Amino acid sequence: MWYDADTIPRGEAMTGCYEQTFSMAVENPRKTAIAFSLTIDPLEHITGDVAGLVANFVFELLGMFFARSIASKANVAVIEMVTDVMEHGSDRQGPLGVRVRIEGDTLEVTVAGPDVERITNVDDPRKPLADAVHKRSVDKTDGGLGLMRLIKASKKG
């Protein structure tokens, strides 16, 4: 069962929640349909690398039916979006939801969780990427750019 960004399993309204989706076109000549979802509530109960675990499962499952490039992009999307929720979520008592769906010629990966900074709804994805790269070079920090690069790449085509 999928819990959208406005509800948690107990049916209570969740404040400060967001939902982020990565989608891309896929070659699907046999019209294979795949859909699954995962909900963990609350986030504070997660003690391991849930982003890596789910992302590896997505990679292996999609790799059985689709090109490795598709499975790889879905893997990166899951890792980055789940990591954003885990590291930057505003409410550790809130849920994490992951949904992966291929229907027709479209792959969608959706992650819902406590509110985090949104970067997908920008007109020019180069601007936040350039700002983040500059800030990280000034602060001498690494990481945190995978999803922005994936979004930029997906908007090219």
UniProtKB/TrEMBL annotation:
Official protein name in the record: ATP-binding protein
UniProt-listed InterPro entries: HATPase_C_sf (IPR036890)
Superkingdom field: Bacteria
Species this chain originates from: Polyangium mundeleinium
Lineage, broadest ranks: Bacteria, Pseudomonadati, Myxococcota, Polyangia, Polyangiales
